[in-house]
User: Fold this.
Amino acid sequence: MQSNKPLIVACIPAFNEEKTIASVIIKAQRHVDKVIVCDDGSMDMTAEIAKKLGADVVSHGKNLGYGAALATLFEKAREENADIMVIVDGDGQHNPDDIPRLIEPIIGGEADIVIGSRFLGEGVGQVPRYRRAGIKIITKITDKATYNELTDAQSGFRAYNKKAIISIKPSEMGMGASAEILIKAHKLGLKVKEIPVKISYGKDVSTHNPIYHGIDVVLSIVKHLSIRHPLLFYGVPGFILIMIALVFWIWTLQIFTATRQVVTNITLVAIGATMVGLTLLTTAIILWVLASLIREKV
Assistant:
């Protein structure tokens, strides 16, 4: 007889986490059937420690980035035919003992993706102020492109059901993958739920530069929005610039008609606005056509 018990795997993206990876793996093993570690080009003993503790380890030859590690882990979860995949950071900030609470809404059929939010319940007080401000800004930007009710779009502590594991394939190499996953999930109509979790920032062990993190995420969101809505993203600004250029061209002609002189500054604004406007409109049309063709093939 086949068991109806779901196969649960904990997936850990790790880069130079030899000081914390052991405790994360051991705690995760209490709540899951298998632990998979993606060693993203670590130069320390992260991979060796993980293997000694019985985790499956997939190693990148060099550091490719957080998103690349997530893509590898999604692929491994599909190969394992996992029913539930839990992403736990290897730096010790997430508490693997929260895994049962994280997967409960998935087991109950309430959600396809569950996010451990730092801004629900008592967890918000533990987030350093500079991180709190940056995360909230990024979350608001992400909300505009995805789910309006999210409080922590950048939390890496997440659980995915089989549908999400199969259908989501991250392509961003860096920290923008977190936002990319939510954008793709929203497009696929997947249900997302948040639960409160506490994050350990005692030693601020994160290896991610917050400024680089923020820029990477914003650029990722901009890229995906521009691909999904090229006419809106490029076409509208292009049209506005063409209208501005038209005003300045009329102004230039009026001055020339009256004085037979060309005002350089006004003319340069007209030329510049025309060139940029036409470039944006052309880009909008090309991307719209390409996106339409890709959708038809899919």
Q: What stands out?
A: Strands lie at 8-14, 34-40, 56-60, 84-87, 113-117, 158-161, 192-196.
